[in-house]
Amino acid sequence: MKLILLGAPGAGKGTQAEIVSRKLSIPTISTGNILREAIKNGTETGLKAKGFMDKGELVPDEVVVAMVKERLAEPDCQHGYILDGFPRTVAQAEALDQIAHIDVALNIDTPDDIIIDRLSGRRVCAECGGTYHTSLLKEDKCPACGGAVYQRDDDKPETVTNRLAVYQEKTAPLIDYYQKKGILSTADCRGTIEENYRAVKAALEAKKQ
Ligand code: AP5
């Protein structure tokens, strides 16, 4: 299955992608994670992306499209994948149409008040990259590997406000884009992680019929 996860920042795309990836044995391609890794490694892509990401702006389409094209050509993507955080503009969606036949665009639908709580409470493990919410953490350590957890720079309140505005302007139109193509499905993701996975599974199954 070739799946796109749409949804606002903090809607829970990465959390659900991890579960679906395990269940379907297909890789998740998260453009946010690839860009953060590029910044950490000081690559040319990372240098181009950093200023945009720090402000909560989108990285230019040509940078992200080139990165995704390269990643989708790798052998582990040949039997399907989950795109988390791509496409994010109509231009990116059109570029994707040229290189892939997507089966489902799944909209992770979460109300704004819940999103703000999820983003302000998100902590990421510096060692293994695991993502958690403070409400589910007993201490400031990763429950999986014991590494220190930190708050992403773009989860600070002033940047979150801009990310949500950028989402409304540039990414929300993709809901209509994929609706018109007949491949949109929506999962109500205001519940717990397990409840949301059940909604995601039902939305995927509805599209298979
Ligand atoms: P990216 O990393 O893609 O960030 P995002 O879309 O803003 O999404 P997030 O990772 O913030 O949220 P998510 O929906 O995955 O939620 P999560 O599962 O973590 O992008 C970052 C930046 O990179 C962009 O701003 C842009 O600059 C750049 N970029 C990336 N892709 C690009 C592209 N295609 N084009 C241009 N620029 C691009 O959940 C959030 C929190 O909630 C976590 O703490 C999680 O543990 C918790 N949580 C999740 N579900 C639940 C639940 N049910 N109950 C309680 N807590 C929950």
| Ligand names | BIS(adenosine)-5'-pentaphosphate
How many β strands by DSSP?
Answer: 8
Helix residue percentage: 40-55%
Report the C-alpha radius of gyration, rounded: 16 Å
Intertermini distance? 14 Å
Biggest pleated-sheet summary? 5 strands, parallel
Structural class: alpha/beta
Strand line-up across the major sheet: 2-3-1-4-8
**H/E series, N to C?**
EHEHHHEHEHEEEHHEH
Fraction of residues in β-strands: 15-25%
H/I helix tally: 9
What does this structure look like?
The protein has 209 residues and is of the alpha/beta class. It contains nine helices and eight strands. The protein has helices at residues 13-24, 31-40, 44-55, 61-72, 90-99, 112-120, 157-171, 173-181, 193-208, and strands at residues 2-6, 28-30, 81-84, 104-109, 122-125, 131-133, 149-150, 184-188. The strands form two sheets. The chain has a five-stranded parallel sheet with strand order 2-3-1-4-8, with helices on both faces. It is globular. BIS(adenosine)-5'-pentaphosphate (AP5) is lined by residues 7, 9-15, 31-32, 35, 52-53, 56-59, 64, 85-86, 88, 92, 118, 121-122, 131-133, 154, 163, 192-193, 196.
